[in-house]
Amino acid sequence: MTYECILVETIGKVGLVRLNRPQVLNALNDQLMTELGQALSGFDADDNIGAMVVTGSDKAFAAGADIAAMANYSYMDVYKGEYITRNWETIKSVRKPVIAAVRGFALGGGCELAMMCDFIICADTAKFGQPEIKLGIIPGAGGTQRLPRAVSKAKAMDLCLTGRMMDAAEAERAGLVSRVVPADRCLDEALEAATVIAAYSIPSVMMAKESVNRAFEGPLSEGMLFERRMFHSLFATEDQKEGMAAFVGKRKPEFKNK
Ligand code: CO8
């Protein structure tokens, strides 16, 4: 597949997507979001891939939705035509883990895209924010919903209402990111984490992801039941037998993803 707005490669069992619109700090337009969805869906369907990484450039993960592209849209364009918004949820249907490696700006839709990934590893240069308020709009892809769940109501209100940026240290303190590393280590750190994940049994990895996501949808008792049933079902896999036999036998497991 040929892409114009992203670069795609495979590193071992990891699929890597680089957002690639450097002239506009990886501003997210319909084409980029369509291509990103296609690339991630392709990796998701590929048995040789166990995890994915999405990254940008040193200067920007993504500076938000493309403001120039949406400046003249009407209400009917964005509501009925779903311009801008129509391709945004594909990433949420990806069942294997997706890690965001964030260097530089992750603003507006860029911050929201990072939050749609399963976790964020960021560089000490990273800057997160929801500056839509400065444009006379509000976040449209989770900034008012995923952000409060990730960082608390107080911090989310502060960011959405003032439009200020939060640096990497503040983002880590607030719980938005799982790790902060020096900028030149960021992508490698994410690729290494993805490589670790991709070596595990894919069914257990997928069920772990599904179960953690359940924690954000509905009551605790339902989440606990879902986790319990997922846990039970993994005893039907060959990989559970292999993983436990390998531990008991003091050897490395050889997972077959079955
Ligand atoms: N859209 C389009 N172009 C952009 C964007 C953007 N979001 N961000 C930067 N650019 C362009 C600039 O216009 C500039 O182009 P040119 O060289 O032709 O003048 C180029 O990128 C470089 O940018 P700057 O010169 O501004 O670089 P600086 O280092 O001075 O500043 C900033 C970097 C602070 C990141 C600054 O560019 C900025 O403030 N950008 C806009 C950030 C922003 O407001 N983001 C939110 C956009 S709205 C949004 O994301 C809504 C999401 C809704 C999603 C809903 C889907 C369901």
TrEMBL record:
EC class name: lyase
InterPro entries named in the record: ClpP/crotonase-like_dom_sf, Enoyl-CoA_hyd/isom_CS, Enoyl-CoA_hydra/iso, Enoyl-CoA_hydra_C
Gene Ontology MF terms in the entry: enoyl-CoA hydratase activity
PROSITE patterns with a match to the protein in the record: ENOYL_COA_HYDRATASE
Keyword line: Lyase
Coiled-coil features, chain-numbered ranges: none
CDD domains: crotonase-like (cd06558)
EC number: 4.2.1.17
Source organism, top-level taxon: Bacteria
Family per record: Belongs to the enoyl-CoA hydratase/isomerase family.
Name assigned to this protein: Enoyl-CoA hydratase
UniProt source species: Limnobacter humi
